[in-house]
Amino acid sequence: MPELSKPPTHTAYAFRRMGKKPHQGRWLEVGTGRLDADGKFHTFMDRTPIGGFNGYVFLAPIGSGPPGVEQKPQRPDDDDDSADDHADG
To answer: How does pLDDT run across 28-39, given as a tens digit for each residue?
Structure first.
C-alpha cells in the first residue's frame, strides 16, 4: 500500500489542448506528487481535464509552476502599443 502520510514535493500539471493545433492550449494543475528515496515518483491526480487530454502529466517542484507554453507569433497589426499610437494628444 502506498504511503500517503508524507507531504508532496511536486505539483502535477496536465496540458489541455484547446484549438486545432497541438500546441494550442494551457497547463492545468491536476494534483500533487512526491519523489521517494528510491527515485520513484508517486502521483495523486485529484482531477483530469475533460477533452483535449492526451495523458501526459508534468511534475514540477512546488512553487515553480508549469512549463512555459509556446507563445504564438504576434502579428504586426496586433501590436499592444498600437492604442498609444492612435491616442489624441
So the answer is: 899 999 988 898
Name 29's bridge partners: 13
| DSSP H or E stretch at residue 87 | none
Residue 7's nearest CA partner among 26, 29, 32 is 32
Q: What residues form DSSP beta bridges with 13?
A: 29, 58
Distance CA 59, CA 10 (A): 6
Q: What value does the mean pLDDT of the chain take?
A: 77
Beta strands in 1-89 (DSSP E): 10-17, 25-35, 41-45, 53-61
Closest CA to 59 of 6, 11, 26, 20: 11
Q: How far is CA 36 from the centre of its chain?
A: 23
